[in-house]
Specification:
Elements: E1 12-15, H1 17-30, E2 34-39, H2 50-60, E3 67-72, H3 75-80, H4 84-91, E4 96-100, H5 103-106, E5 114-118, E6 123-128, E7 133-137, H6 141-157, E8 159-160
Parallel strand pairs: 2-3, 3-4
Antiparallel strand pairs: 1-7, 2-5, 4-8, 5-6, 6-7
Protein name: DUF7931 domain-containing protein
Domain DUF7931: 18-166
Organism: Dyella jejuensis
């Protein structure tokens, strides 16, 4: 008996700003409690649309196991530009954590890549974050596993982005 994989489990090519935004929203909507994101930079149109922010807020407040981990190459630039994700991170710092890659990781070629990985085996991977082209799947464990391993290694070495913490005055 042969099992035919569902179209959701097959990685597909993604290209262009609108297609990337659509798959990001699908992945966020499919996330239950855990999300892992790596971005060398945080452009104004990434994770800032009202529907994306609503999904991120839902995930961050989804319960005890909620965890959004973001490794961001240049958090200071996102703060200076007033990115809406930073505001959300300051409101829910216990569940939306932002770290910066260490210098060794920041200088490697892999940091031009971008990932968005969720806990329902979905992912978006851009081999070059500036090209706006990559691959995505809504449910592909074998495709997700190596990306999650690389992310976990980066996260483990990354340092907290203390410049983004609210001042609590």
């Amino acid at each position: 008996m042969t099992v035919t994989p569902s179209p959701e489990s097959q990685p597909r090519a993604i290209e262009g700003r609108e297609e990337l935004a659509a798959i990001r929203l699908q992945l966020l909507a499919a996330t239950r409690y855990k999300l892992a994101i790596y971005l060398p930079a945080l452009p104004a149109d990434v994770l800032s649309r009202p529907a994306e922010l609503a999904e991120l807020r839902r995930i961050a407040t989804s319960g005890r196991g909620a965890e959004i981990r973001l490794v961001l190459g240049d958090p200071a630039a996102a703060l200076r530009s007033g990115h809406r994700l930073i505001d959300l991170a300051q409101r829910v710092p216990s569940t939306l954590q932002i770290r910066m890659p260490v210098e060794d990781d920041a200088s490697t070629i892999r940091n031009s890549r971008a990932w968005l990985l969720n806990d329902s085996l979905g992912y978006l991977f851009l081999p070059d974050a500036e090209r706006l082209a990559g691959r995505a799947a809504l449910s592909d464990g074998p495709g997700l596993a190596p990306l999650l391993l690389q992310f976990d290694q980066l996260w483990g070495r990354a340092v907290p982005a203390t410049s983004l913490q609210p001042l609590g005055l």
